[in-house]
Amino acid sequence: QLKLEDYKDRLKKGEALNQDQLEAVEKYDEVVHNLEFAKELQKTFSGLSQDLLKAQRKAQRRESLLKLEAEKKKLRTILQVQYVLQNFTQEHVQKDFKGGVNGAMYLPSKELDYLIRFAKLTCPERNESL
């Protein structure tokens, strides 16, 4: 663009230009228009790129939150199961299930023993002082 402006100035001063220079001066407005168009296009692409990056970050945050919620749900389920299993290690609970009383269904001793052993294997001992 600077070279074309120099040619225009030289032409205004009456200086003789060769054929290529004259053709370049004739296309000055077209070149300026194309440069402006290219600048606008670049701005548009830059804006679209920024929007895309924002959308990607937002999607990643959403995905992270969904994963976190799924992990919380799994942990909640594990803790609930552990709580139920730990209750099988208490004598009064065992008596209720052996007799099918106090809202507990009847469980044969063999099945109850399986649950108690499973509870001891899967549930860590709680330190009540913590």
TrEMBL record:
UniProt KW keywords: Coiled coil
Coiled-coil regions, chain positions: 4-58
Molecular function via GO: signaling receptor binding
GO biological process, one term: positive regulation of canonical Wnt signaling pathway
Domain Caprin-1 dimerization: 61-128
Record family assignment: Belongs to the caprin family.
Protein name: CAPR2 protein
Taxonomic source organism: Sula dactylatra
Gene (name only): Caprin2
